[in-house]
Amino acid sequence: LSHDLRTPLTSLAGFAESLEKTHPSLSHEQAEIAEAIHSQAMRMNSLVNNLLEMARLQSGDVKLTRDWHSIEEVIGSALKSRENILSGHQIKITLHDDFPLLEFDATLIERVFCNLFENAAKYTPKGSRIRIDAQISGNDARISVSDNGHGLAKGSEEAVFEKFTRGEKESATPGVGLGLAICKAVVEAHRGKIWAENLEAGGARFTFTLPLPAVRPPLLCRVTGVVPRLAESVAPVISPPLDATV
Ligand SMILES: Nc1ncnc2c1ncn2[C@@H]1O[C@H](COP(=O)(O)OP(=O)(O)O)[C@@H](O)[C@H]1O
Ligand SMILES: [Mg+2]
Fold first, then answer.
1. Strand bridging mode 102-105 / 66-69
2. What angle do CA 163, 166, 167 make, to 5 degrees?
3. What is the distance between the alpha carbons of residues 142 and 242, in angstroms, rounded to a whole number?
4. What does the pLDDT look like over 116-133, one tens digit per residue?
5. Nearest C-alpha to atom 19 of ligand 1 is from which residue?
């Protein structure tokens, strides 16, 4: 079923992209239409992915494919795959050089980041700043994605994680209210927690924890230089912690 739903959307996006690149080049108006088809197909693709993922997570038999991963690498792939919607936003990653490898299902945790990045881009004005911080707190790795947008409606900090729950103002913004429910299901399957809060300075912060493994990762696994190359617009600035500016 997932194949039947995904394939036509992927082709649609691919065809629209080829159309944008045809020679002689399209008129301005035609190019805009081709781009609109492309971006709507990509959007539909992301909705379908979320619906399928939620169905799978709810079926109760999610088998985590746990392995040792660098969180930096997963953040990098998520940024890369959401490059389009993140362009125009400033991204800043604060992650200590010797942040340990963690044991998790990389595909699922990447989806958590993708959903949080999508929201941070979707619910904030263009040019807004998105911050990703990772630190160790007690027996947990604590990872947060914050933005400097308008923040969450007062009192909705827990409800936003429920299935099909959307902000009242969001009817004009595409979405079905599954992004955060998926994040919660994935994080809880890893025995972590996820919560949301509004920042005093404005904007929302989503934080999730992943328990630190009881055993140390095999030393040979340490991967270096892992953030894939990104377009200039979303190139992350990796800086040492302590720098508190958003
Ligand atoms: N970064 C954010 N800033 C403000 N509101 C947000 C943010 N992220 C999520 N929300 C609110 O939480 C709701 C639920 O988010 P989500 O589960 O991802 O569903 P969707 O994005 O499809 O609406 C959104 O409709 C929005 O009202
Ligand atoms: Mg969302």
1. antiparallel
2. 150
3. 15
4. 999 999 999 999 999 999
5. 177
